[in-house]
Amino acid sequence: MNFTNLFKIAFRALINNKMRAFLTMLGIIIGVASVITMIAIGQGSKVSIQKQISEMGSNIIMIHPGGDMRGGMRRDPSEMQTLKLTDYQALRDECVFVSAISPNVTSSGQLIAGNNNYPSSFTGVGIDYLKIRQLTVESGEMFTEADIQSSAKVCVIGKTIVDNLFPDGGDPIGKVIRFNKVPFRVIGVLKSKGYNSMGMDQDDIVLAPYSTVMKRLLAVQHLQGIFASALTEGMTDNATDEISTILRRTHKLTADEEDDFTIRSQQELSNMLNTTTDMLTMLLACIAGISLIVGGIGIMNIMYVSVTERTREIGLRMSVGARGIDILSQFLIESILISITGGLIGVMLGCGASIAVKFIANWPIYIQPWSIILSFGVCTFTGVFFGWYPAKKAAALDPIDAIRYE
Length: 406
Fold this sequence. Notes:
The protein folds into two domains: 3-52 and 272-404, no CATH class; 81-259, no CATH class. The chain has helices spanning 3-15, 18-57, 85-94, 129-133, 145-149, 159-165, 210-218, 236-250, 266-309, 311-319, 324-360, 369-395, 399-404; strands at residues 60-65, 69-70, 73-74, 98-113, 116-125, 137-140, 154-157, 176-179, 182-190, 206-209, 225-230, 261-265. 56% of the residues lie in helices and 18% in strands. The chain is an alpha+beta fold. The chain is elongated, with a radius of gyration of 34 Å.
């Protein structure tokens, strides 16, 4: 018996039992749709996090003082004063893999403008800080190197600061704000960036020359950190190694001494978050995949019922010349048709559900082509795997016993 005839017989058997075939498909449909939707949600979160990290600067390198041992006790890194302006100058002059670098010092306190006040922090940086953090001055201008050299009392503020200190909608450029009783003139307003993936308000920011913050607000000679940007994201490791080598030399550390500084890159954060989202996606996919197994068991169950109901039919076919392989192929084709049809409907339902989640729940969604191929492949394998045993049982029936079956 050729394949076309076997396909027609299997298709006719399913058409004659439409409701039963559909209910059998339902487990496969739900399984495939669930897998596609769960992976789309997980991958959407991953893409969203990558995009936000890229907006913050995917090649950022952060250098901070490291903890040190004193009297057998490790001191808190925030108490250390191991980073100096000379370190920043050495890195600025010698680093080959760094495209931009800026010192970083921060002072927390209350911002006051007229009758309005807002708790925030003043961040002292260099002019390269905008490039490193991918910030843009929307109105006004950024302070200059001359302002840094003269420790000028000027600042650039974010939109959150504008909204809280100048709620009447007036232009803040040229206005004076006070921070810990020290007056600063606003010379620029940064373009809004909103919240990042960690829920931090990127517009709650005040930038001033680092020399001003160090002298007029903190009265310190050390830096709280140094921010740098590698030439490309792929060169981050090279830049990190280069920075470490220079700092160890400027700090006169011997080969057996630990670093008195720490270097972290945005790439490390990106890799960590990607690993976490990938694990979450796989967990969601595995949970959704359980329904595929349930659907496969449903196929096996209904095929067993079908074999039992059609025992006499099988006996008649075998008595007129049908071979065991023909009977096996017929029932196997039925189970594959159920799984493939259910898989196709599940793919359409999964894509539709993913789009619905995007518009209704406003979640980031990214439908991966491989998730469709994988889920469809799994449901096809499920049809073959769970349909094989009932089909083999049908093929192994004795024709005479099958004809006598009541």
